[in-house]
Amino acid sequence: MTTALLWLRRDLRLTDHPALIAACERHERVLPVYIHAPDEDAPWSPGAASRWWLHHSLKALGDSLKAIGAPLIIREGDSLTSLRALIKETDASAVYWSRLYEPTAIARDTRVKEALRSDEIEAESFNSALLFEPWTLKTLSGEPYRVFTPFWRNASARLHSPVPLAAPEHISAPKKLPKSLPLDALNLLPKIPWAGGFTPRWQPGEAGAFIALNEFCEERMPDYKEARDIPSLDATSSLSPHLHFGEISPRQIIARAQAQAASDDAPGMLAGSEHFAREIGWREFAHHLLFHYPKTPDEPMYASKFGRFPWRKRGESINDLEAWQRGQTGIPIVDAGMRQLWTTGYMHNRVRMIVASLLTKNLLIPWQDGAHWFWDTLVDASLANNTLGWQWVAGCGADAAPYYRIFNPVLQSAKFDPHGIYLRRWVPELAALPDKDLHAPWEKPALLAGTGYPKPIVDLADSRVRALAAYEAIKGTDPA
After folding, report:
1. Which domain holds residue 229?
2. Domain count of the chain?
3. What CATH code is carried by the domain that includes residue 42?
4. Can 349 be counted among the known catalytic residues?
5. Which keywords are on file for this protein (predicted)?
6. I need a surface site. Which of 21, 121, 337, 461 has the fewest CB within 10 A?
7. Catalytic residue among 89, 282, 299, 429
8. In whole angstroms, what is the distance from residue 240 CA to residue 249 CA?
9. In the annotation, is 279 catalytic?
10. Residue 280 sits in a domain of what CATH number?
11. Are residues 352 and 455 in the same domain?
């Protein structure tokens, strides 16, 4: 009887899992293993919010695996060393895993695959996380895409109704099991109870992902195209952290959305499903960019141009950065978003753009500072998505034209939260103010008396002029 190790990372599910299915089909015994090696992801080791999610996702997966006959073996340390030890302990002849696309993960996985094959161990990786591998989509000239619309036009033309793989009904594990660390030994949960607001908001794990997907498709998808920009509404899918940790695959999401649209003639259902698929496309685009431009988590894509951008020095901007992080900028929509992030590990996408624009353009604080804060505080912190989002808002990345776009937080707030429902939820100091005064309360200083709410840390009009001048200063450099 042959044994295979299933090396799990961010593919924490049983359904539509090509590596798992291959292991079960090719070998009599399969042992799922998770090796905790955060240092191998440096400098982008998982942040605090991601570690909280990972703990609960591993717990859920362990319970699911146990129910069908296999334990989840947990180890900690160097991945290759740990795999070699497990191979020796189980007499395994193969290791299967799902591909990751971050630069450090690619380098590590390449080393592991070469080393295992030199040990005469079968080592094979599978696409579990994307609709399309990043190297399979190219422009007519054979180059990677830098603009989303032609990218998605190409991708969606190839997107035929996917059929997700069924979960195995049973996994036969080796009779003699290697030792496993208890989950708590990984110390993933925060040492201080700052994540108390996460539990009411989220259900990590494959079951939670299915619930979120079904609720979205059945209840919210018809209104998605119009309602997704309203931060006070629960109108989005909430699937981003489930996708990041591989508790559900994009193939499953597309298949479920297409099936709902085909069987339900509710007004807006087809348009909602198409727009939702387009948002999955943005995730694909983000991974496409990260694969082809691996320096972008730290450097602007158009480095020759934006490498000269006159950001403020850290010493003169640190107080503003801290006020932004704490949700104390004095600009309600920004503070609401930052407080939602700290409390729930999530921020509405429209608000993410607003808070990022204020940081990078009104405050002239480098986008990397914002990206690192999001990385530590978002439960859906994906290096690909985080990088694309911050470079897009800062104007230095793909598809960022016009790169000098500056979001006006007051106009954005009045447009997308006209009655202040979102503002009152997250900035309760202002709850008693009339709707018309909520978005720019500093214009009537008397209204702020006794509220404890701060005055704005920046003049929006003056800082807009300053930002445009900064962008004008680098305008002459050819971004190509």
Report:
1. 130-163+204-292
2. 3
3. 3.40.50.620
4. yes
5. Chromophore, FAD, Flavoprotein, Lyase
6. 461
7. 282
8. 11
9. yes
10. 1.25.40.80
11. yes
Please list the pLDDT of the chain residue by residue as tens digits (480 residues). Answer: 899 999 999 999 999 999 999 999 999 999 999 999 999 999 999 999 999 999 999 999 999 999 999 999 999 999 999 999 999 999 999 999 999 999 999 999 999 999 999 999 999 999 999 999 999 999 999 999 999 999 999 999 998 888 999 999 999 999 999 999 999 999 999 988 888 999 999 999 999 999 999 999 999 999 999 999 999 999 999 999 999 999 999 999 999 999 999 998 888 899 999 999 999 999 999 999 999 999 999 999 998 889 899 999 988 899 999 999 999 999 999 999 999 999 999 999 999 999 999 999 999 999 999 999 999 999 999 999 999 999 999 999 998 778 788 999 999 999 999 999 999 999 999 999 999 999 999 999 999 999 999 999 999 999 999 999 999 999 865 444
Structure tokens at 404: 């000098």
Task: Please identify which of the residues 76, 127, 299, 311 carries the catalytic annotation.
Answer: 311
Q: What distance separates the 2 farthest-apart alpha carbons in the chain? A: 79
Q: Please give the Cα distance from 118 to 22 (Å, whole number).
A: 21
Instruction: Find the helix or strand (DSSP H, E) in which 35 lies.
Output: strand 29-36
Among candidate residues 265, 292, 319, the one where a domain is terminated: 292
Nearest to 206 by CA among 249, 171, 172: 249
Q: Which amino acid is at 197?
A: G
State yes or no: is 135 an active-site residue: no
Nearest partner of 258 among 225, 227, 213, judged by Cα: 213
The one catalytic residue in 202, 390, 426, 442 is 390
Per the annotation, the verdict on 194 as an active-site residue is: no
User: Is residue 193 domain-resident?
Assistant: no
Q: Does a structural domain hold residue 175?
A: no
CA distance 36 to 129: 19
Compute CA distances 49 → 152, 195, 344, 371, 381, whole Å.
Answer: 31, 8, 9, 14, 8
What are the binding residues for FAD?
Answer: 224, 236-240, 276
Residue 190 lies in a domain: no
Which tokens in the block code for residue 446?
Answer: 């008397």
pTM over 0.90: yes
**Residue holding tokens 């198409």?**
274
Among the listed residues 127, 154, 194, 349, the single catalytic one is 349
Q: Which residues are annotated as a binding site?
A: 224, 236-240, 276
Given the residues 215, 279, 299, 429, the one annotated as active site = 279
Collapsing DSSP states into helix, strand and coil, what is residue 419?
A: coil
Claim to verify: residue 275 and residue 309 sit in the same structural domain: no
Burial readout 225-257 (b: 16 or more C-beta within 10 A, e: otherwise): beebbbbbbebbbbbbbbbbbbbbbbbbbbbbb
